[in-house]
Design a protein that fits this description.
This protein has 461 residues and is an all-alpha fold. It contains 16 helices and no strands.
Length: 461
């Protein structure tokens, strides 16, 4: 269960703060690690079918939905910050209104995606530019997988809500349930019933809805504390919707900019040749591996920052953020050390193509430096999400893309792929420096606690 926040929590020691941050972070790190396992099983199951077009179709369709659903990840982030603050001040009414509103927004957006899928899917698959046979299988996958949109977005809202309450073990359970069900249903539908691409897509749809049902059942224990006559407040609370939509709109734009940054990186890498594109794809797996740990501590920071702000507990805020910084730097140092010592071996595990391995090894130093250079961007995102200061995240992301990423790429084109990685690293550092400068300025002006309640509220479990 989540820890209680009260005025007494200001005496929390450094060691206790480190323990609290780690206790919230480890389930998130573990849940992050389960994500690629599902991709491996999908690949293994479909990869043994008699025609390679099935594997290509599933890969292409899954890529489309990764981008599509990631674009709506603001539902998780915005819900986390707002629910953490409500939890911090002990406002059960606000917590449950927020859950209902976030779920409603997610379902409405999901239904909108289903309605628009005849337009979205052809455009998306056209941009991914697969062969006719592979695109045909991807189309089959996509037209089934789109049915999961309401469930996926509802799951984002549920995970964000539980995370805001500090219940990271619940988020781990939901991720394990989703991935485990998906794997089992993959095996049953594809191997047991002889389905192909459609079986993999249907397994994902069924797993998503079953996970949503599980999350709702877990939330019901808290919901029972509420009087059902207040259910109208979920629909009638216009100010609540306005704040939620304002927070999420800024996060949506920020996410689109981040998606553009990665898409641009892939596009420019492709312009440098197939070998370069493949080598960059291998190296981006290093970025993904580092993000498993850094994201875990960033997400823990979201919950702790929001709860501290909601409880008007500035002393705890300081010590908990310091502990989160320590853990994040330690994780980044560990990742850098692993990449430096075992980087070439990891590349060898990811590809056995000599030319791709040689090129990836040549650009490995960028990956060795990446975790330490990226630490601040992850942690600052967690700080600002917890504080729901999402406009600053939006503005600095736009500035980092337009003011640093693209100009550095343009000037460094003679350097080839080194120039592309230089631009990407510069973009990452710019995000950190710009957001860090805003935090430092606002902290000195005492903006963050200016609107907090004068007396913190004791919470029950």
């Amino acid at each position: 269960m989540a820890k209680n926040y009260s005025k007494d929590s200001s005496v929390i020691g450094t060691q206790a703060a480190r323990g609290r941050v780690f206790a919230l972070a480890w389930p998130l790190i573990l849940s992050n690690i389960t994500v690629p396992l599902l991709g491996l099983v999908d690949t293994a199951v479909v990869g043994h079918l008699p025609d390679s077009r099935y594997l290509g179709g599933v890969t292409l369709g899954a890529a489309l939905f990764s981008f599509l659903y990631w674009g709506f990840g603001f539902l998780r982030m915005g819900t986390t910050g707002l629910s953490a603050q409500a939890h911090g001040r002990g406002d059960i009414d606000a917590l449950l209104r927020l859950l209902g509103q976030s779920l409603l927004i997610g379902v409405v957006i999901g239904l909108g995606l289903i309605i628009l899928h005849p337009l979205i899917i052809p455009i998306g698959l056209g941009l991914l530019d697969g062969s006719p046979a592979v695109s045909a299988e991807a189309d089959i996958y996509s037209r089934i997988r789109i049915a999961s949109a309401p469930a996926v977005l509802a799951n984002y809202a549920l995970i964000g809500w539980f995370l805001g309450r500090g219940q990271t073990r619940v988020t781990l359970v939901l991720m394990l349930i989703n991935n485990s069900l998906n794997i089992v249903l993959d095996l049953v539908l594809v191997i047991g019933f002889g389905m192909t691409t459609a079986g993999v897509a249907l397994a994902s749809v069924m797993a998503d809805y079953l996970t949503t049902a599980t999350g709702l059942a877990m939330a019901l224990g808290v919901w029972r504390q509420w009087h059902w006559r207040k259910i109208r407040g979920v629909l009638n609370d216009r100010r609540g919707y306005q704040r939620l939509l304002s927070v999420n709109a800024a996060l949506f734009i920020r996410t689109l900019c981040l998606l553009f940054a990665f898409a641009f990186f892939h596009s420019q890498g492709a312009q440098l040749g197939d070998t370069t594109l493949a080598a960059n794809a291998v190296l981006l797996q290093f970025v993904l591996l580092a993000s498993y740990g850094l994201d875990g501590f960033a997400h823990a920071t979201e919950a702790l920052v929001g709860q501290s702000l909601g409880a008007n507990d500035e002393a705890s805020f300081r010590v908990l953020v310091r502990a989160a910084i320590e853990w994040s730097v330690l994780m980044a140092m560990a990742a850098t050390l692993i990449f430096a010592v075992a980087g070439e071996g990891l590349i060898g595990l990811l590809t056995d193509l000599p030319a791709v391995r040689a090129m990836a090894n040549a650009f490995l130093p960028w990956m060795i430096a990446m975790p330490l250079l990226a630490t601040a961007s992850y942690l600052l995102d967690g700080l600002f999400i917890g504080a729901t200061r999402t406009r600053a995240m939006r503005d600095t992301m736009i500035a980092a893309v337009l003011g640093f990423y693209l100009p550095v790429w343009w000037l460094s084109q003679p350097l080839g792929n080194h120039g592309l990685w230089l631009a990407f690293i510069t973009f990452t550092l710019a995000r950190s420096l710009l957001l860090g400068a805003i935090f430092w300025r606002e902290w000195r002006q005492r903006v963050w606690f200016a609107d907090s309640p004068k007396q913190p509220v004791e919470l029950g479990e």
